[in-house]
């Protein structure tokens, strides 16, 4: 394992093109619950009751209450060491770096990441149901859902991607390109079961490049990874980014 770790460090240090995919696990240390597993957000809820267009059409108030609660939770949280280390890695790599996240919590941006694709949207914004205008939610203390569009006055929905909806095609293409051309890809804190984000690591492997996974639990990507660090996101990233001895 030590040998694998040293090799991964060296690969990462030398790589000019690096792609990173993160999931809910990277925000666990900021106190934001993951979706699956014990204590997960989906536990006790069926996702189709809350995170689908049908659920929203049926009971928009209920869906907005759930998002308003998550929005408060996210705004009370702070980015953790793992978010910050990825912002530093971006600063080192510049142009050749892309961070793709499935998270809607906005913590990567707050930690300073700019070469960032938020594949599933962002919970701190709303999108107009009529004209598509996007705007940030007011501060949690002043927020009374549902928000109204500043441009046309219509009701707005959370600016996230729900089950059964398509991802933004341009964002997805950008993410795929980055994983296709990366010399090293990191996949951190995702159960790797939701497509198409789940296959980004596979894209890197089929292109013959190097794949590192950081997750306390094994995932469907584990058998493919060149190195699997069985640790939390901060600890794993700190190990990986440490100068090779
Ligand atoms: P999941 O909740 O499915 O998976 C979280 C992963 O994080 C698991 O594999 C855990 O083992 C791992 N984990 C837990 N603690 C960790 C830690 N401290 N450090 C690193 N990893 C840790 O979350 P996602 O894979 O992000 O989609 O879920 C993907 C998508 O499914 C979400 O974006 C959401 C959900 O349905 C939409 O809302 C569209
Ligand atoms: Zn509007």
Secondary-structure topology with pairs:
Elements lengths: L1 H13 L3 E5 L2 H4 L18 H4 L2 H6 L1 H17 L4 H13 L3 E5 L5 H4 L5 E3 L2 E8 L5 E3 L19 E5 L8 H13 L2 E5 L11 H7 L3 E5 L12 E3 L3 H9 L4
Helix pairs in contact: 6-10, 8-9
The structure holds 2'-O-acetyl adenosine-5-diphosphoribose and zinc ion.
Zinc ion binds next to loops.
Distance from N terminus to C terminus (CA atoms, Å) equals: 15 Å
Oligomer: single chain
In the predicted model, the low-confidence regions spanning at least 5 consecutive residues are: none
Indicate the overall shape.
Answer: elongated
Radius of gyration, in angstroms, nearest whole number? 18 Å
How are the strands of the biggest sheet laid out side by side? Answer: 3-2-1-7-8-9
Main sheet?
6 strands, parallel
Number of E strands: 9
Question: Could you state the order of secondary-structure elements as H and E?
Answer: HEHHHHHEHEEEEHEHEEH
Number of discrete helical segments: 10
Walkthrough of the structure:
There is one protein chain. The mean pLDDT is 93. It is elongated and about 55 Å long. The chain has 10 helices and 9 strands. Helix 7 links the parallel strand 2 (97-101) and strand 3 (116-118). The chain has helices at residues 2-14, 25-28, 47-50, 53-58, 60-76, 81-93, 107-110, 169-181, 200-206, 233-241, and strands at 18-22, 97-101, 116-118, 121-128, 134-136, 156-160, 184-188, 210-214, 227-229. It has a 6-stranded parallel β-sheet, sandwiched between helices. The chain starts with a helix and ends with a helix. The protein has 245 residues and is an alpha/beta fold. Helices cover 37% and strands 17% of the residues. 2'-O-acetyl adenosine-5-diphosphoribose (OAD) binds next to helix 2. 2'-O-acetyl adenosine-5-diphosphoribose is lined by residues 23-26, 28-29, 34-37, 40, 51, 102, 120, 161, 189-191, 194, 215-217, 219, 232-233.
